[in-house]
Amino acid sequence: MLEKRRCRCATCVGIVCLIIVVITNLFLIRPKFTANRLPEIEENGPNQERIWEQRLMRLKQATGSQEAEPDLSKAELLLQGSTCTPNKARNRLFNLFGDTKFDLSMSIFLDEHNKNSEENLRYPPPFGMEGAEPWLDSVLKLLPESGLPYHIAKKSCRRCIVVGNGGILSKKNLGEVIDNYDVVIRMNDAPIGKFKSDVGSKTTFRFMYPEGTYKDPKLFHSNSTVVFMTFKPKDLEWLQSVLTNVKLKSTKEFWKKIPTSLPKKPSQCRLFNPSILQELAFDILKLPINKGIMKKNVPTTGALAIMFSARFCDEIAVAGFGYNLKDPNAKLHYYDNNKMKVITKSWTHNISDERKFLMALAQFGVIHDLTGGLLQGG
Q1: What residues does 315 pair with on adjacent strands?
Q2: At the top level of CATH, which class does the domain 58-369 belong to?
Q3: Per residue in 307-337, pLDDT tens?
Q4: Bridge partners (DSSP) listed for residue 187
Q5: Residue 280 CB coordination number (10 Å)
Q6: 217: which residues sit within 8 A by CB, 6+ positions away?
Q7: Which among 287, 321, 360 has a CA at the least distance from the CA of 53?
Q8: What residue segments make up the domains of the chain, in order of their start?
Q9: CA-to-CA separations, 348 to 1, 217, 269, 331, 343, in angstroms, rounded
């Protein structure tokens, strides 16, 4: 009898413990993931883990102080561009990020299939499309294409170069080298014209938004594809107006004069997927989320163009990157007289953190920096 009582007591204790565990899991421990929703959103802080930064520090400790890559002659750079290694950039990205979140399968353009994704409806522009849905629907109906242009898509291996606007490009005479790439990506209204010996003349994609668009239609490259970035709902209204030749009723929300026409067919226009911007800003750079409001948390267009190219390019080069913050009077752009101190006053970009990230991409060979500004820590 005594043994039976002990067994019953033990069974009761076991059942009580099991009930306690179940109740604790249900009510006290909040799971980060469930089957039908995204991870909980938390505000990023200064102590957020950045795996790429940790790996960069370990690389520096293992190899000592890193020096910039040696300058190659134009002939060497052209010879280097005669071959292409499939998946080179993507494989090195995985080496840098390991098993942390980095979604290379993410669509680079917005279309009918991904416009209502949870990521895109989480924040207002530029990090998402919350609040801009009516204009987004109207614009997407005007755009017949949402994939890579055929002449790029058909290539089995793609060599890409992202041409930054930095003053470091001046007098480098890299125009022929840049034009030798399969895909040339440029930003905003950076001119070519008299600078083509340094920056080349070929354009495949040009990232732009209303205030950063050429005012003179003659300056657009006829065969290029425009990648349109949305910083506010009004930007989509402007895009609709220039695609349909209907004048905007008001331009008060734009911070500078904008063009009233766009010399592009709808088939030459794409909408940039803001999920890429959201991923780079919040998941990778760990910039403050700030409820999706812009304030020192928007990556530069150049950094976004690199993350854009990582989705479809096998090899990625950059030129004209690297802010020399140690010299406030250094040339900011290759095409004007603005000085470096202008960018330090930016209220939208966190130049310091972004510079570290781009240096990590260069150090791990994800990108090849033709002008050397990133590996010099400039």
Answers
A1: 159
A2: alpha beta
A3: 999 999 999 999 999 877 677 778 888 998 8
A4: 207
A5: 21
A6: 259, 261, 262, 263
A7: 360
A8: 58-369
A9: 77, 28, 26, 20, 10
